[in-house]
Structure to design on (59 residues):
């Protein structure tokens, strides 16, 4: 947590306040977003699905 605060403060000084806030928000919320996206992946792999449906439709 201290690394996030340090990096945010560093970005406040080097760039601007908005950049630091956006970066910290992204770092804090990424694990939740990743869980939401990939929560069904283990079950889909066990069923034998190895290619994402969206990739198959786009190709």
């Amino acid at each position: 947590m201290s690394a996030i605060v340090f990096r945010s403060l560093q970005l406040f000084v080097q760039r601007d306040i908005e950049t630091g806030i956006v970066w910290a928000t992204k770092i804090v919320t990424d694990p939740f977003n990743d869980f939401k996206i990939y929560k069904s992946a283990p079950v889909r792999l066990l069923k034998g699905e190895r290619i994402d449906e969206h990739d198959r439709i786009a190709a």
